């Protein structure tokens, strides 16, 4: 549940979601659920030549299981906090 | 017993982070047969009656419920041309489109295979506002161009990785999007249950018992007709004595199996 909590804190921020089919969508994180399904708003496709259809999309729902990476805003990453959280999670607490 | 197993399992899980013992997640995920079969888009023709007004037959035994019905929806598969208006049915498990004019025509895709859905309103990308979906075909290196050149006669649904649903009333799009989202959340990836571990512990107890029997008589394994070993050699009394001895020991419940085993022991 660590990353669920982490992504919840990023709601409202700009992220890039890279899917397993190589599609990368940039947008404002609208919401995330426990399965790491992601809703984005004001989306745009990073590689527009490859996926021209997605240009028209303003909001989208991405299935958590098809996400390969989420690129985060640099200032949205508190490394120390994440460190502690992962250690706590690893201890099972 | 089951409580003990659960405690053992919890203990194992709690310690797995610090010890190198394999946790359940390290095992290769066992795929449901159902899961393999539902990848991508498929034809759907099971209607509740044989008219075009018939609703799709859902898997109600497994809890599937109809969540939304949207009449007057066109469907666009890949880059093919739109197909005559039909009715969109959204259930807790899948998206189904049935033609209004041809009762033999219908498509369905499970939410498990819907990678992404979105509201598309840009007329440059597509003439009509629609729900845009990407479908996971389960094909890793698929060429998206391949489906484009195919004629209508050779429609290969397994290669369709995009689907558009065009309601005649664009004002329905946001509501449709929400229903899609709600149902997608009802269908997380099937997670490997811990049942395997339960089975393992359970069968370990059993196999421990059987191993004990085998240890008593190594030859027993090779005896296929195990019920007559003692009797055929006239060792009934001996066999019975040993049998009683072991029953008193309360280790075994299966007298039939035991008799053969114990008699074999004294050959």
TrEMBL record, chain A:
UniProt keywords, alphabetically: mRNA processing, mRNA splicing, Nucleus, Ribonucleoprotein, RNA-binding, Spliceosome
Subcellular location(s) of the protein: Nucleus
GO cellular component: catalytic step 2 spliceosome; Lsm1-7-Pat1 complex; P-body; precatalytic spliceosome; U4/U6 x U5 tri-snRNP complex; U6 snRNP
SMART domains: Sm
GO biological process terms on file: mRNA splicing, via spliceosome
GO molecular-function term, one example from the UniProt record: RNA binding
Sm domain: residues covered: 2-76
Transmembrane segments: none
Domain of life per record: Eukaryota
Known function: Component of LSM protein complexes, which are involved in RNA processing.
Similarity comment: family membership: Belongs to the snRNP Sm proteins family.
Entry protein name: Sm-like protein LSM2
Organism: Tagetes erecta
Automatic annotation (TrEMBL), chain B:
GO cellular component term of the entry, any: pICln-Sm protein complex
GO biological process entries: cell volume homeostasis; chloride transport; mRNA cis splicing, via spliceosome; spliceosomal snRNP assembly
Keyword Ubl conjugation attributed: no
Family: Belongs to the pICln (TC 1.A.47) family.
Cell location: Cytoplasm; Nucleus
Pfam families recorded: Voldacs
Biased composition, class Acidic residues, residue ranges: 137-155
Region (Disordered): 1-30, 132-156
Protein name as annotated: Chloride conductance regulatory protein ICln
Keyword terms of this UniProt record: Cytoplasm, Nucleus
